Fold this protein.
Amino acid sequence: MLSIERGKIFTVTNGIINDGFILIDNGRIKEISSKPIKGNFEKINAKGKLVFPGFIDAHSHLGLFALEGGWEGFDGNEMTNPSTPAMRAIDAINPQDPAYKDAISAGITTIFTGPGSGNVVGGQSVIMKTYGEIADEMIIRNPAGLKCAFGENPKRVYTEKSQLPTTRMGTAKVFRETLSKAKGYYENKKKKKKVSFDLNMEALIPVFEGQIPLRIHSHRADDIVTAIRIAKHEFGLKAVIEHGTDAVRVRDFLVKEKVPVVVGPLLNVSPKVETRSASFENPTKLIKSGVLTALMTDHPVIPIQYALIQAGVVAYQGGLGEEKALELITINAAKILEIDKDYGSIEKGKVADIAIYDGHPFSTTGKCDTVLMCGKAVFKGGKHV
């Protein structure tokens, strides 16, 4: 067993415990207390330090798009067909990408990572830990979502190829057609009818069974509405809006539809028309309206280690405040990823993924000192273990 002692504990869901104690057993949090926990344990002295749950990036392309080099490390977009649901992120993830260590050094312990937005239907994403050498051993959930995309990206890619889709109508057609074929395939399999095995259609079965959501890249308000119209109204499927630059314009609609949004990236400069209304205040407006909201880095668009700085900007310049901004990269992210039973807060019974800072992580002066994953130190004294 291991105890973290005398740190300022930000539980996220149950307030702050000054001079608190955490007991970890078998990779999970066994006890949290404002009083010393008696016993002969290995101890981490966190006096004068801040203790947080491991941070979560709810949307990235970590391991699929390398920061350095060019095409050699770009494996997230199979742009040979606008609908490629059978593409699996796990087959391209490179755990040796240095950005995984960058994530750990910032206290980011869990990520959602997957295909890019070049195709209308891009493939299956995963939820994984940021520590390890073999992708399969780092996985929390696979598949964890099916990547889809509306707006400028698929239009640009396939206009250059003189191929459908070149318009938003074409994008909707490809999306609708893929789902329609998959629905027929799925229903025939349920009825035990003979079907010709189709890897693309098989990839959509977890979506139709409600096991994973469609993770839909969309910026403009009309793209958001179209995505929900088709995914939810026509096919009854779960959806998460990615980026959602104009989501504030349709926030009441999103509340009514109970569709969450993963906002960002917000620290980059984008030349795209559809992102011109990006603002640090957008997450604040969504949260205050009742939309379940998290933040993304969209790594490598924003290098993943700056996730905390981005959250800080939303907290201070965006007006959300530290407490609510912290939720964007912890419990809210965990809820959207449907892993909040085990991750996203410091609570009894949850996985002991913990980040210990010597100052507030939203500040440029706050440095990560120690990171635990499943109760094991993977970063200690500011160095990788």
The CA atoms of residues 195 and 351 lie 41 Å apart. The first helix runs from residue 99 to 105. The chain is about 25% helix and 25% strand. The chain has a mean pLDDT of 98.
